[in-house]
Amino acid sequence: MAPIILAQELGKTYRSGKLEVPALRSVSFAVEPGEFVSIVGPSGSGKSTLFYILGGLTQATSGHISIEGVDFARLTDAERTTMRRHKISFIFQRFNLLPTLSAMGNIEIANEIANIGRPDAAALDRSLLDHLSELLGIAGRLEHRPNELSGGEQQRIAIARAMITRPAIVLADEPTGNLDTKNSDAVLRMLRTSSRELNQTVLMITHNPEAAQIADRILHMRDGEITHIENGKG
Ligand code: ADP
User: How many domains does the chain have?
Assistant: First the structure.
């Protein structure tokens, strides 16, 4: 099977004035479609930088990265933006739901944004929404606004929002960082189940070694490098 993500000797150096900060040094890995991969490592090891590059928010300084065979280096800024919109979804530590919209409104607007610039703009996939609602236990919560929902519920809505567009990749940055242990366990389990049921590729940054184990594989980073790759229990 062709990898959905292929990183080859990826490097990133931040420059501010004369100062150069190497954030990634020759990072290579491949992710298969439907895989769930955790990324762990101490603060400053380059995890966020890797996500920024994958999300098209910044460019690598050297090496190559491709999604579904499309090399980022060949894209213009505008093409990278389109790629991000169509192929990547994010789940954030702070949920980032729009406060004035209901949970359903948040999911609908994500679907609309993902469709910008698509000739075949898809209406919201109702059967996928039903499936996600069941997997994530949010069927009764869709008419509520974020401030009427618990943190765990908000993050489950954010997972539905990320997956409703059937993106190539979901990038989850510390998705349980703002939750207590009980909610954190539940959200992780549901994220894992949804990924498996929908064959959804997920990359998850986490500081929690136990949470990381839910993945198929765990990439360990340090000082801008992958030190080793371990099989998870997922
Ligand atoms: P992590 O997510 O693992 O904490 P980061 O990718 O945020 O690691 O950071 C990797 C390195 O790059 C760190 O040394 C950090 O200080 C540096 N860095 C991150 N963003 C910037 C930036 N915008 N400008 C300069 N240096 C940065």
Answer: 1
CATH number at residue 22: 3.40.50.300
> Does the pLDDT at position 206 exceed 90?
yes
H or E stretch at 103: helix 103-115
Question: What distance in Å separates the CA atoms of residue 94 and residue 161, rounded to the nearest whole number?
Answer: 14
Written as one letter, the residue type at 128 is: L
Q: What is the arithmetic mean of pLDDT over 52-73?
A: 92
Asked if residue 155 has its Cβ within 6 Å of ligand 1, the reply is no
Closest ligand 1 atom to 50 CA: 6
User: Candidates 13, 48, 171, 219: which one to mutate for ligand 1, based on the most atoms within 8 Å of Cβ?
Assistant: 48
For residue 49, how far is its CA from the centre of ligand 1 (angstroms)?
6
pTM for this predicted structure: 0.95
